[in-house]
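Action item from last meeting closed. Structure (106 res):
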C-alpha cells in the first residue's frame, strides 16, 4: 500500500508538472509567433483551458484514489497497533487463580 501511495504522489506531481510546462510553452509560443494564432477562430488560450480541465479531472480522480489508499493504510496500521497493545496487555496480566483453590502448575 505504501508503494501505491508513493506512485499516486508521483503521478499527481508528474501530471501537474506536465500541465504547467505545456501551459508555459503555449504562452511563450503565442508571444514569440503571434501571427500563427491570428488565423484561428478560437482564442489562443483555449487549448490551455481544455487541457487544464482534463488535467484537473485526472488530478481529482488521483487525489480521491490516494485518499482511499491512505485511509486503507491507516486502518491497517491502526488494527495492527490495537492488536499489539492487546497482546502486550494480556502478557502483563498475572495468571488467573483456579476457582477450586488448587495451585496452578505448568
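Sequence:
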Amino acid at each position: 500500500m505504501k508503494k501505491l501511495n508513493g506512485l499516486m504522489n508521483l503521478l499527481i506531481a508528474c501530471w501537474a508538472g506536465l500541465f504547467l510546462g505545456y501551459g508555459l510553452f503555449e504562452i511563450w509560443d503565442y508571444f514569440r509567433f503571434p501571427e500563427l494564432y491570428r488565423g484561428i477562430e478560437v482564442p489562443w488560450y483555449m487549448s490551455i483551458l481544455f487541457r487544464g480541465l482534463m488535467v484537473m479531472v485526472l488530478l481529482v480522480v488521483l487525489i480521491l484514489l490516494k485518499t482511499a489508499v491512505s485511509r486503507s493504510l491507516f486502518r491497517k496500521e491502526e488494527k495492527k497497533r490495537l492488536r499489539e497493545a492487546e497482546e502486550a496487555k494480556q502478557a502483563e496480566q498475572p495468571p488467573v487463580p483456579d476457582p477450586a483453590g488448587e495451585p496452578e502448575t505448568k
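Note appended to the action item: The CA atoms of residues 44 and 78 lie 52 Å apart.
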